[in-house]
Write a structure and sequence with these properties.
Blueprint lengths: L9 H6 L7 E4 L3 E5 L7 E7 L6 H7 L2 H18 L1 E2 L4 E2 L2 E3 L15 E5 L12
Antiparallel strand pairs: 1-2, 2-3, 3-7, 4-5, 6-7
The structure holds adenosine monophosphate.
Amino acid sequence: MAYAYDDQNIFAKILRREIPNSTVMETEHTLAFNDIAPQTPHHVLVIPKGPYVNHDHFAAEATDAEIVDFTRVVGAICAGLAIQPGEGGEGYRLISNAGETGVQEVPHYHMHILSGRPLGRMVKKAD
Ligand code: AMP
């Protein structure tokens, strides 16, 4: 499958330092920053620095080093957020939206890490 990457998306601009971000963690291949419109008390986005549009693109074409690095950054942030006494209990939710079905707004692969309050059931029933 051929994947088309739009380098004018907002996360590409963040990676080029054209717009600011609230960095949580940065490694050679990965950047994690706070979501600008948090849905939960803790809402972190983790993105690879490479030009991948979604999870299946990343899984198919990223290097092993990029995949390991991304996975470990997500894990490290989850470990830090996993227990928040008085802020909704332990745990977190990972979400990665893709395409129209997933209602993806920014076409650069990203993982949402949500934590800090009970999040309810996983997916709403269809209307
Ligand atoms: P998605 O619908 O999965 O593509 O989610 C995109 C997310 O990016 C949303 O939660 C937005 O609030 C977030 N977002 C958009 N622009 C920025 C920005 N400049 N800095 C941080 N987060 C952003």
